[in-house]
Amino acid sequence: MSRTRLSPIDILGITLGTIVILVVIASIALLARNHGFFTNWSLPGARFWTERPFRHGGAFNHPLREEKDEQVTGSFTAIEIRDIAGAIDIHTGTGDSVGVHSVKTAMFPAAMENLTVGIEKRGDRLLVEERHEAGFLMSAGSVSFDITLPKGITVIDAHSVSGSITVHDVPPGISQTLATISGSISSSAAGNLDASSTSGSIQFGFAGSRLNARTVSGSVEGTINSLDPGGSAEVRSVSGSVNLQAYSGFDAVVSLNSVSGGVSCGFPVVVTEQKRNSLSGKIGNGSSRLDVSTTSGTINISKS
Question: Please, where are the H alpha helices in the chain?
Answer without folding.
Answer: 8-34, 46-50, 109-113
